[in-house]
Amino acid sequence: MKSGAFSLLLIMGLSVLVSACIPSEKPPPPEEGSDVAPVAPAPSEAKSAPTPERLVEEWTKLTRNATDLVTTSQHEQLVRGLAKASSTALMPLLDMVADDELNPFARVVAVQAIEGYMTIAYLERLTGLIHDSTDVTTRSSAVTLLTKIDDPRVEEELRGLLEDKERRVSFSAHRGLALMGDADTRALMITWYEDEETARNEKAAILAIIGDDPSAAELKFLIKVASDADTPTYSQTLASESLARHGDESVIADLKQTQAVTTTLREMILLQQLIQSIEARLGQSVPETTTKREVSDQ
């Protein structure tokens, strides 16, 4: 026999011998009729949940170089993880909101991401930022977050800020009360909208507030905004979207009445599309197509 073949046989024989001497890792099967259940293999160790410190670190990496105001699903996932960790685990993100040296986009994204998770546990921290900070962005952001807390002390705090020397802080306080449904504040904000001196971003905020849950009188205000040829496109869009969500038969009647006296083709078409949108939501019949001639004849 050649030496190579002999070596191979020797190795195979040794392998068989070694295998016979080493006990198998698997337990022998139970004998037939035995009451002993087979031993299941140990499950693999589950991955431990990330610590709050790790989640904050991931958040910092994600937002450090933010260049827009978009809150992504990854932001939301990190915030949910922190909110589950403990009642005050979002404090580091509040610190970021208050950091005037931080990327401003990162601060806004932080506000947007955590506002839905504000609880009474953060009340003292937020009121401290409002009264102790000298940074306007920090104070107005803290007011925005404060309005999300369901506690009687919040309304009292907001009313104390209505005449704040900083316009942004005062506006945020009015916004909070309006979102709580305070009728006087909502009426005041409509007056502000109609003031030519009101900034464009504030007008957009007012339309978003009023359009979120409009009363019957506020729906008429939104119709006026949507149908006014001099209204900027962004305002018409916000008003129209609200009317499409909340409009009813009375709104349709008002829109048709407004459409009858409208003189510009653009507004006629816009109102007709809005009417169709509401009718579709209400389950009413809507013509498949509407020509410019049909609109102008109405």
What does this structure look like?
This protein is mostly helical and 298 residues long. Among the domains are: 50-117, no CATH class; 214-298, no CATH class. It has helices at residues 3-21, 52-63, 73-85, 91-97, 104-114, 123-132, 136-146, 152-159, 167-179, 183-194, 200-212, 216-227, 233-246, 249-260, 265-282, 292-297. α9 (167-179) runs parallel beside α11 (200-212). The chain is elongated. The protein starts with a helix and ends with a helix. Mean pLDDT is 83; it is low at 1-26 and 286-298.
Task: From the structure above, extract its key features.
298 residues, mainly alpha, 64% helix, disordered N terminus, disordered C terminus
Q: Which quaternary structure do these chains form?
A: single chain
Strand content: under 5%
Structural class: mainly alpha
What distance separates the N and C termini?
107 Å
Number of strands: 0
Q: What overall geometry do the principal axes of the alpha carbons give?
A: elongated
- Largest sheet geometry: none
Low-confidence stretches: 1-26, 286-298
Helix content class: 55-70%
What is the averaged pLDDT score?
A: 83
Radius of gyration: 33 Å
Number of helices: 16
Order of helices and strands: HHHHHHHHHHHHHHHH
